[in-house]
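Appendix B. Raw example, untouched.
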Amino acid sequence: MARQIGYKLIGTIKAVKGTCSAGHKVGDKLELSAYTSAGLCGFFYHDIFPYIVMLQFGGGFPPEWGNPDVVELDCLDKWNTVTIELRRVRE
């Protein structure tokens, strides 16, 4: 079994506008990391990878932007947009 490096990240699908061609649905939860896409659409994973790495290895956003452990991002498909919330889990 692989050792967890860095923080655990949970991606939660918050919205789907239209029909997601990868089949993602509101409420889906994925444990993402720099090492695994956990079934997230490859295009979407590629697009949000820098945020995954930042959160997994301790980076964050300025406190005045809100919670430094959470970011909400949209996929590139503007006709069938999927919104995901990335949340760093501090255990």
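End of appendix B.
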